[in-house]
Amino acid sequence: MVSFPQHILNSQNTHHKRLSLLFPLFLILVLVALVRSAQVYFFLFTGDKAPINALKIFLSNIAYFFYFIPLSIVAYKLTLRFPFPRTPLRSLLLVHGGVVLIAFGIHQTIMLGVNQFLWQPELITSHIFYQYFNNPTIWIELFVYALFIIGLYFIEYRKINYQQELQRTYIESELVNSRLQELKNRLQPSFLLLTFQTLTQYLHNEQYSEANSLISDLSDYLRTTVYSSIHEWTTLNEEINYLQLYMKIMAVLHGYTTTIVDVVPSELRSIKVPKFTLQPLIENILSHVEQDHSVQKLSISAQLTNNTVNVYLQLQMNCTYKILEHDRNVLTYISHRFDKLYGSTAHLEVTFPSETEINYMVQLPQGVYHATYKNEVPL
């Protein structure tokens, strides 16, 4: 299957659209020229009613009305160069008014030449003065040009609305796909399988209190993962609790202990943040380390600076950790999600102070959201 570059497709679409507009205009002008020629020949023409004179009248009218085809192209170019919503009304009047006057002068000059060629009349000064300065056909010129401009601006307005609707539909579909992907990522089969294996082991060893505790933690984790995933936003406090719950379950499943230091100020815990912002960062690391390797210490802090929340995750590993391709994919995915939600104003940064330390900084502006998601931000 051959795919063309987008700029070529746009060029072809524009060319086809221009042809689709010019063809009916051509037919209309031919019809008007025929009607006008018949009117002049049968009712206004006082010369010899010969076929040659009828042909001359028709050619004269064809020349007159066909001039509106290049005029329509000029009008089309001007509507693109000076779009109505972004151009001041005064500028529009000056541009289009000047074009009408220049076009009228060129049009009358062409018609003088055509009529001189067809009829060979004597060009007198009074006739030339009338042709340029006292000709009522200027009102026809104004009316036709105004129709061109109004019609072209209306077509452009419909085109812009259609493109915005397509973009809005695309963003909404991307949001749905993003949520489905998040839900898929949250329910990793290996995580659930290991949890069930641990529960089976607890029950086999009659460790009922440990089994009940793990089931309770798992139900809270799944409730947040599945049933609350329809909402895009949560509080920073809930996001931290979700991360700590995940760390608690992972420590039970793998049999290690992680020290969690949470020093986030209480006044920042009610700030709205995107759901599943912090936990995927830690999950990505734990799902790609050896079984006997873990996070020994996790420090969580946050500060508000210039209406921007900076959340810091500092991880101390019991092993050497190097960033791999899967890390880049996860970071790219999260950054892309931030772009959708914040319009490229959020930021995610990862640094490695040492071979066993990983620091994340999540920078989330407050009150700056993509227009598509403003209605989803809880107040």
The description of the largest β-sheet is: 5 strands, mixed
Radius of gyration: 37 Å
Q: Alpha-carbon distance between the termini? A: 48 Å
Strand order of the largest sheet: 2-4-5-7-6
The average pLDDT value, as a whole number, equals 79
Structure summary, number of beta strands: 7
Task: Please write out the topology.
Elements: H1 6-44, H2 51-66, H3 68-81, H4 89-119, H5 125-133, H6 137-186, H7 189-204, H8 208-227, E1 233-235, H9 236-254, E2 259-262, E3 272-274, H10 279-286, E4 295-305, E5 308-317, H11 325-342, E6 347-354, E7 357-365
Explain what you see.
The chain is an alpha+beta fold. It folds into 2 domains: 6-169, no CATH class; 231-376, Heat Shock Protein 90. It is 63% helix and 13% strand. The chain is built from 11 helices and 7 strands. It has helices spanning 6-44, 51-66, 68-81, 89-119, 125-133, 137-186, 189-204, 208-227, 236-254, 279-286, 325-342, and strands spanning 233-235, 259-262, 272-274, 295-305, 308-317, 347-354, 357-365. The strands form 2 sheets. Strands 2-4-5-7-6 form a 5-stranded mixed beta sheet. It has a two-stranded antiparallel sheet with strand order 1-3. Helix 1 (6-44) runs antiparallel to helix 2. Residues 1-12 and 369-379 have low confidence and may be disordered.
